[in-house]
Amino acid sequence: MGSEAVCSVSYAGQVSEGKALLETTEVLFRGDFRLKIPFAAITSLTTDDGALRLGYEGDVAVFDLGRDADKWAEKIRNPRGLLDKLGVKPGMHIAVLGVTDADFLTQLTARTGAPAQGIDGGALDIIFYEADRLNDLTRLPELRTAIKPAGAVWVVSPKGKGIEVRDVDVMAAAREAGLVDTKVASFSATHTALRLVIPKALR
Q1: H or E segment and range at residue 103
Q2: What residues does 194 pair with on adjacent strands?
Q3: Class of domain 82-202
Q4: Which CATH class is domain 3-77?
Q5: What are the extents of the domains in the chain?
Q6: Contact (CB, 8 A) for 13 and 78
Q7: What is the pLDDT of residue 2?
């Protein structure tokens, strides 16, 4: 989840009060008019007296954010990458089971080295596990035994209509396996990820 603020925005001769949202890769505004400004489309970025000014499509969108303007500007200039959202740090012992996203695997290998393709009981910091079908969730008890007490299992599954594995299914299977869900993240344009950990009382 990104940051949000109720503020005034001016753009292309329009001014409106509404809600601004700072997401992972874009800035949104919902008021009397709507804006969706991808970071990649921003041509200029400045702050002045609490105003965040974003050059976009030949005009400038001005967000009156007060003391948050500089914070938003920093996040836009230096957006968190996928691995940061997923808690991946150099030196971690990580396994990838079934996840084939090429961009993710390239980033992961660059940060931690080649991930394991199997599980090593009790020694893993993070397991990334693809679950496309409900039956895939039956493996969670096994994965629980493969992570360190403070480790995590990220269950990666398709998102959208007609999917077989929903977040509620993962959560239910996690409880049965002695795990709890603590975070959800957008893994890619086609997949979501749910973070599962061993409850602190059981570590």
Answers
A1: helix 102-112
A2: 155, 184
A3: alpha beta
A4: mainly beta
A5: 3-77, 82-202
A6: no
A7: 64
**Spatial separation of the C-alpha atoms in residues 65 and 49, rounded to whole Å:** 9
Q: For residue 92, which of 55, 65, 120 has the smallest C-alpha distance?
A: 120
Q: Which of 18, 13, 16, 9 minimizes the C-alpha distance to 54? A: 9
Residue with tokens 């890619």: 188
Residue 148 · residue 80 · CB < 8 Å: no
Q: Residue 116 has what DSSP assignment? A: B
Residue pLDDT, tens place only, 139-169: 999 999 999 999 999 999 998 888 999 999 9
pLDDT score, position 194: 97
* Whether the Cβ atoms of residue 55 and residue 44 lie closer than 8 Å to each other: yes
122: which DSSP letter?
T
Is the pTM for the entire model greater than 0.85?
no
Element (H, E) at 72: helix 69-77
Q: Which residues contact 160 (CB under 8 A, 6 or more apart)?
A: 190
Q: 10: which 2 tokens?
A: 């001016």
